[in-house]
TrEMBL record:
<dbReference type="InterPro" id="IPR003694">
    <property type="entry name" value="NAD_synthase"/>
</dbReference>
<protein>
    <recommendedName>
        <fullName>Glutamine-dependent NAD(+) synthetase</fullName>
        <ecNumber>6.3.5.1</ecNumber>
    </recommendedName>
</protein>
<comment type="similarity">
    <text>In the C-terminal section; belongs to the NAD synthetase family.</text>
</comment>
<dbReference type="InterPro" id="IPR014445">
    <property type="entry name" value="Gln-dep_NAD_synthase"/>
</dbReference>
<dbReference type="GO" id="GO:0005829">
    <property type="term" value="C:cytosol"/>
</dbReference>
<feature type="domain" description="CN hydrolase">
    <location>
        <begin position="5"/>
        <end position="275"/>
    </location>
</feature>
<dbReference type="GO" id="GO:0005524">
    <property type="term" value="F:ATP binding"/>
</dbReference>
<dbReference type="GO" id="GO:0004359">
    <property type="term" value="F:glutaminase activity"/>
</dbReference>
<comment type="pathway">
    <text>Cofactor biosynthesis; NAD(+) biosynthesis; NAD(+) from deamido-NAD(+) (L-Gln route): step 1/1.</text>
</comment>
<dbReference type="InterPro" id="IPR003010">
    <property type="entry name" value="C-N_Hydrolase"/>
</dbReference>
<dbReference type="InterPro" id="IPR022310">
    <property type="entry name" value="NAD/GMP_synthase"/>
</dbReference>
<keyword id="KW-0520">NAD</keyword>
<comment type="subunit">
    <text>Homohexamer.</text>
</comment>
<dbReference type="Pfam" id="PF00795">
    <property type="entry name" value="CN_hydrolase"/>
</dbReference>
<dbReference type="InterPro" id="IPR036526">
    <property type="entry name" value="C-N_Hydrolase_sf"/>
</dbReference>
<keyword id="KW-0067">ATP-binding</keyword>
<dbReference type="GO" id="GO:0034354">
    <property type="term" value="P:'de novo' NAD+ biosynthetic process from L-tryptophan"/>
</dbReference>
């Protein structure tokens, strides 16, 4: 009868503008799909050029090289006898579109432009592309000569159409269209489309995976059908980590699940499904059938090809599975670790250097690097030749095999405790103990001589010597002396990153890791150009609360007992003099607010889009059991003063792994002024008026 269709989807670790590598990974995915019997292969969004090309989309070179890659795909025997669905930018009548190019046996069947563009948060698709606004309309697209010579076609269909094969009907969605309130799969399903495809460029956010899975399953639960989702994976050149999770769903249930975090550059899911299950599922949904009888039909591109075999009664089909979600702590352990590995191997550096203070933030960063080492050893053990080749190149040893995470960590990870006269022995011991347990190459040094030299220059020039407040100095002197220490640590971090391996007789340089968390960045509780200034920061958009939970996870899963004393210690910058040999300075006292409060402020400011007055109105209810309205007003005003005074620091914030939707990253995610009227006079007056009324 021809009822069992075999389809493939994939997650590819594509890299922006790496046309050679992207082509090789596409070919590998097609080979795997064909070897498993698939007759249709779906790839991620814009997989030919890589999703994160940004303003390179404006360049004609990007279009040219994308078509050159398409030419290689079309003429290759590897793409014969399988419908291939690939993503690339296409210029049609001088308008640039984000497209799927679907082809079979050297013939392009359809170019399908994206209808709903992602244009919020990290996404700027409307900057580079135009959405296709002509519903159910198809035009002629004149192919470039290099493609005409391969396909023998002068024009091909371009627009909003579906494919009608000999046994079923397929319709495409592209990423954002699944999230839109009027998703195309609704009308396509009513028009008889049985297989929906979605090519995505969807990035990781903590606790987000379930939303994507629920959307896919609900798409076919209401309307019946098969839904195939492909996604990019890995770091393709910026702050985002695309988290795979390729999946196949039928009639509201998941039948195939891909990995969310993995060092495999190519992952292919294949499923064999019975079309009659879709038809019988739809048959009893009367509301769906009534709506289907009135639907406006889609243009159909007829394809003389079948996704099934004529005699397939005995072919086994896939059964539903239970989706396994990671905990947030597992996500922190795996996502930033995979991102760091991609950044390390693609930047062609020899490892990382981290200023390890013995506090929670830098310790969490160290644990993420240690988790990366675990992932590398596991991938090599499972036969990943790409990871093995990258590891050998990074450590400069062609015979090396990473088997022990601690041993590999010593080769690629340098930690450095930078003591001053204000540092306690406790933090020194905690940093040293953690370094021993994860296996990093650890350095202890003292910065006092450098600090005295810098302050001495100022004293010679001005004939004035600043003092800490405990010695009679004012707040300006106190802060300046703290900042000198912090900035000298940044200078030394880069010096040691460049020359540590040279001093050890080894080639290469190290990437400097930052370890400022999202809450400190939001409040501006950091020195501009201190150790928060680094090459990359794996925890820059993760909250203190989540980092504490992650530390507990590492104690349990990596047996890092040194973390227990780090967890029990009060967070401190250790930039002011000790009192009787003990730390007197604490982060929360310095900030004038708790980390828990900061997380709430951050979510209200960014996710709930709350200004000072709206935040006050929400918090008087949220905190009514613990604060009076006047106390809430005072807290809100203080937060907005500190946030606005320090917003300029976000313009130089180290590129951070994007993990939270309240990240204050100024580069493209959280676009705000950095010179505010910090009195907020009008806004605060509205708050005061409400307080008096209450």
């Amino acid at each position: 009868m021809g009822r069992a269709v075999t389809v493939a989807t994939c997650a590819l670790n594509q890299w922006a503008l790496d046309f050679e590598g992207n082509l090789e990974r596409i070919f590998r995915s097609i080979d795997i799909a064909k070897s498993k019997g698939a007759r249709y292969r779906l790839g991620p969004e814009l997989e030919i050029c890589g999703y994160g090309c940004s303003d390179h989309y404006y360049e004609s070179d990007t279009l040219l090289h994308s078509f050159q890659v398409l030419e290689k795909l079309l003429e290759s025997p590897a793409t014969q006898d399988i419908i291939c669905d690939v993503g690339m930018p296409v210029l049609h009548r001088n308008v640039r579109y984000n497209c799927r190019v679907i082809f079979l046996n050297k013939k392009i069947l359809l170019i399908r432009p994206k209808i709903s563009l992602a244009n919020a948060g990290n996404y700027r698709e409307l900057r580079w592309f135009t959405p296709w606004s002509k519903a159910r309309h198809v035009e002629e697209y004149f192919l470039p000569r290099i493609i005409q010579e391969v396909t023998g076609q002068e024009t091909v269909p371009f627009g909003d159409a579906v494919l009608a094969t000999k046994d079923t009907c397929l319709g495409a969605e592209i990423c954002e269209e699944l999230w839109a309130p009027n998703s195309p799969h609704i009308e396509m399903g009513l028009d008889g489309v049985e297989i929906f495809t979605n090519s995505s460029g969807s990035h990781h956010v903590l606790r987000k995976a379930h939303a994507r899975v629920d959307l896919v399953n609900s798409a076919t639960a209401k309307n019946g059908g098969i839904y195939i989702l492909a996604n990019q994976k890995g770091c393709d050149g910026d702050r985002l980590y695309y988290d795979g999770c390729a999946m196949i769903s039928m009639n509201g249930e998941t039948v195939a699940q891909g990995l969310q975090f993995s060092l495999d550059d190519v992952e292919v899911l294949v499923a064999t499904l019975d079309l009659e299950d879709v038809r019988s599922y739809r048959a009893e949904i009367s509301s769906r059938n009534l709506a289907a009888s009135k639907v406006n039909p889609y243009p159909r591109v007829k394809v003389n090809f079948a996704l099934s075999c004529p005699d397939d009664v005995a072919v086994p089909t896939c059964m539903p599975i239970q989706w396994r979600h990671h905990s947030p702590e597992e996500e922190i352990s795996l996502g930033p670790a995979c991102w760091l590995w991609d950044y390390l191997r693609r930047s062609k550096q020899a490892g990382f250097l981290l200023p390890l203070s013995g506090g929670i933030d830098s310790s969490a960063t160290a644990c993420i690097v240690y988790s990366m080492c675990h992932q590398v050893c596991l991938a090599v053990k499972n036969g990943n030749a790409d990871v093995l080749a990258d590891a050998r190149r990074i450590v400069n040893d062609e015979t090396y095999i990473p088997e022990d995470p601690r041993e590999f960590c010593k080769r690629v990870f340098t930690t450095c405790y930078m003591a001053s006269e204000n540092s306690s022995q406790d933090t020194c011991n905690r940093a040293k103990m953690l370094a021993e347990q994860i296996g990093s190459y650890h350095i202890n040094l003292n910065i006092d001589a450098a600090v005295k030299a810098v302050v001495g220059i100022f004293s010679v020039v001005t004939s004035r010597t600043p003092q800490f407040s405990v010695y009679g100095g004012n707040s300006r002197e106190n802060l300046a002396l703290q900042n000198v220490q912090a900035r000298i640590r940044m200078v030394l971090a880069y010096l040691f990153a460049q020359l540590t391996l040279w001093a050890r007789g080894m080639p290469g340089g190290l990437l400097v890791l930052g370890s400022a968390n999202v809450d400190e960045s939001l409040r501006g509780y950091l020195t501009k150009y201190d150790c928060s200034s680094a090459d990359i920061n794996p925890i820059g958009s993760i909250s203190k609360t989540d980092l504490k939970n992650f530390i507990h996870y590492c104690i349990e899963n990596f047996q890092l007992t040194a973390l227990r004393s780090i967890m029990s210690a009060l967070p401190t910058a250790e930039l002011e003099p000790l009192v009787d040999g003990q730390v007197a300075q604490t982060d929360e006292a310095d900030m004038g607010m708790t980390y828990a409060e900061l997380s709430i402020y951050g979510k209200l400011r960014k996710i709930a889009k709350a200004g000072p007055y709206s935040m006050f109105c929400k918090l008087i209810n949220m905190w009514k059991e613990i604060c009076t309205p006047r106390e809430v007003a005072s807290k809100v005003k203080y937060f907005f003063r500190m946030y606005s005074v320090n917003r300029h620091k976000m313009t130089t914030l180290t590129p951070s792994y994007h993990a939270e939707n309240y990240s204050p990253d100024d580069n493209r995610f959280d676009l705000r002024p950095f010179l505010y009227n910090t009195s907020w006079s009008w806004q605060f007056r509205c708050i005061d008026k409400q307080v008096n009324a209450l």
